[in-house]
Write the structure tokens for this entry.
Amino acid sequence: MRNYSSRYAAVFVLASAAAAAALWIARGDAEAADQTIGTVSYLQGPAQRARGSVDKWSQLQEKASVFQGDRLKTGDDARLEATLADGSKLRLAANSELNLEKMDFSKKKATKTVKAKLVIGRLWASVTKLLSTESKFEVNTGNAVAGVRGTRFTAAKEAGGQTTVKVYSGQVLVSNQPIYAVKGHTKANRVEVAGPQEVSKNQWEELVAGAMQMVTVAANGDMQPPASFAMAEPGKDDWEAWNGERDKVAGLNE
């Protein structure tokens, strides 16, 4: 009987240790997921937040922290600005939804990785400079990806699936996303470009748009070459003017 008791005791101790280790790891993962990656620095009108893939929405308030995995959604006549840990700004117009899929900032390595998905609506991104070649800042709309290296641009996705990317300063590389994610296609192959031009048109299509140029990607992935555009009249649409003023205040209007 004593031997059986010893065996059971040993099994119990091992099981308890494993459970404690699993709890410690889970707690560590939860803490990592809950690390603040930015704050809501401006909010006008109704906005909501959901965490991860769970469709449980709660009201969002100004000065609230935002986290990796957050899904942000604005209502009618709403505008939202989130300031990320590196000083970059993400702004949503009314009736827009943005998923903060991956947000990683490392001061020690001077790197950052930002991957966001615009589900619907309009997004303005004012991105601080990427100091390392290992850094990346990408916005995905499902049929297009915009990759930047310190710039100001907008991405708009319509209900029908068309994506329009407008560049206000710097350069943005735009690609039709389903082919863009080809395995083995590296950052070096798609970022080092001389200026606004077509980069590649083999199995995928990539275009670089410079300041005051726009690229349109149809719902089926067909891309139009970069074309010049003019600023909208504030009386008809003040979205650009409003973002310009916000960038000026933040010192991001270069």
Notes: The helical segments are 2-33, 177-180, 187-191, 239-250. Residues 33 and 88 are 20 Å apart (CA to CA). The chain has two domains: 1-33, 37-250.
